């Protein structure tokens, strides 16, 4: 089954398979299934075409995938354009919510870059 351009695996329980969509977590997946009147615990292969269409309609009510990614990137771009503090942190690829950076922050800063030891190598004669 494909929803919003993403293939949903048939062998997983549907509430967990739907979390493969960007912007859909476990809570929203369960809400989508409840609104579509699909029982929990069912797998993708066991769905009827009517249930598939009901799930697609429910997912379409939320911002997911490309629309959500575009909105988030536009929000970050706006922060950079107005030169806010948070925008400057995004531009420098540093944490934007007050976390410490002396240690940690490896997700944004990337792999550690070791600086030289400050010693010059002695030439051997």
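^ structure tokens above, recovered residues below v
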């Amino acid at each position: 089954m494909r929803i919003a351009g993403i293939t949903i695996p048939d062998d997983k329980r549907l509430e967990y398979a739907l979390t493969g969509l960007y912007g859909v977590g476990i809570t929203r997946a369960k809400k989508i299934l409840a609104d579509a009147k699909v029982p929990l615990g069912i797998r993708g292969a066991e769905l009827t075409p009517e249930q598939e269409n009901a799930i697609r309609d429910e997912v379409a009510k939320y911002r997911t995938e490309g629309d959500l990614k575009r909105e988030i990137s536009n929000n970050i771009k706006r922060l950079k354009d107005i030169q806010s503090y948070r925008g400057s942190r995004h531009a420098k690829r540093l944490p934007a919510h007050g976390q410490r950076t002396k240690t940690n922050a490896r997700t944004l800063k990337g792999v550690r870059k070791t600086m030289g030891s400050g010693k010059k190598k002695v030439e051997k004669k």
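The domain at 2-62 is CATH 1.10.8.50 (Helicase, Ruva Protein; domain 3).
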